[in-house]
Structure formats: structure tokens, C-alpha cells
Hints:
Elements: H1 3-31, H2 38-51, H3 64-120, E1 166-168, E2 179-182, E3 195-196
Helix pairs in contact: 1-3
Amino acid sequence: MKPDELNKTAIAIVALVCLTLVACFGIWVLGRPAAVSTEVQEVRRAGEAASGSAQPSRSAGASKSDESGALGAVLAVEAIRVATVVSNADRILVQSQIGVAKLFVNESLKTSLVRYRIDLGDYPSTKEGIRALISSPEGRSDKWRGPYMDTKDGRMVLDPWKQEYRYLYPGVRNTESYDLFSCGPDGQPGTADDIGNW
């Protein structure tokens, strides 16, 4: 999932919350008894008395306070549901971002780096970095057959936290190969939230 898709997911969650609130308000408005003027009530009572078809009073069924209590319970349940969605939205978003970074470092760039190695005989150096997949490194244009990855206007691909992916060759953790990683949510290399190909 791309960062733009993550933003759309967050917007969809916020829209769901807003729709739930609107629905609760609608239930509350529609569930309220309409305000009837005193004159209309007197005319109804007179008509019912004359026809002998008096309807049972409110006290025979649910009272106004019972209806208000039921509505309050519905609103409370909806409020809890909305609070749960909102509190989990951030966690869901971070998990999606981590998934995107894992996919990028373990799959997306792997093919590009292998193609580069086939054409040039080795992976890009740490100094050349993954930029060597986008434009020819100095002194290697005779063998370079890239670009080896698609980018927008030749710009570097950023991780979900808007930081460049880090690349080391030879790797510190993968000594026979390369290390490719995102610094993760904290943006600092060498911490527990780094997301790498190890």
C-alpha cells in the first residue's frame, strides 16, 4: 500500500466516524415525539371522547423518560463504538505503514538490485546508494542499463514516514549482501523500530 493509499484509508475511517455520528443524531431527532400544541391535543381528546375510541394514555405504555433513557443508551453504545474506532485508527495506520516498508525493503527493491548486479557485476556501493538504480553512477554508464526502478521525475522513493530508505553495501547485518532499511516511525537508524531486509 502506497502512502497516498494510507491517507485515503485514514480519510475513510474519519468519514465512517462522521457518518456514525450523523446517523446517531438522525435517530435521536426521529425518535423524539413531535411537539404538539395544547390546542391540537384538546381537539384530539374531544374527538376521541365523542367517538368513544380513546387511545390508552402514555402511562399505559412507555413514558417519555423511558424513551429518553433508551435513546441515551443507544447514543452511549454508539459513542463507545466511535471511540474504539478512533482510538484504533492510529494503530491501524501505523501497522499499514510498517507493512508498506517491509514490502518495499524485502520485495520491491530486491529485483531492481539483482538486475543492477547482473548488468554491472556487483551491487551499488554504500556511497552510490539506491540512487544508482535511478541514474547511472559516475564512471559506470557503459554497463548501466537502467533505470532499474520506476520513480516520479527521478526522485528517490521515500518510506511511509517521508524519509529516504537507507542502504549499505556490504551490509552490517547481511555481510554477504546489502542492508536496506527504513528508520521506521521514529526516523532514527539503529533503533528497535527499524524495518530492514534482515
